[in-house]
Amino acid sequence: MNKTDLVFQSYGRCCRKDDFFVDFYDFFMSGSDTIRNRFLKTDMDAQRHLLRNGIVQLILHARTIPTTRQSWARPGVTS
Question: CB of 6 within 8 A of CB of 71?
């Protein structure tokens, strides 16, 4: 099993409960009034859905990149 498969499985465990995304945004917005104010009129159910799906798309994309192509993005790693 490669690293992206491990990430995909780990993320799957996070997705089992919606609390993961609720907690993420609670923590994110607690860091700044400016950030919190940008989300005042936001449909947070829809926002959490967008985040959840966006992360899945990133992971799925990463799973399609051959390992030799991924190494360029990691400093100090050569193919």
Answer: no
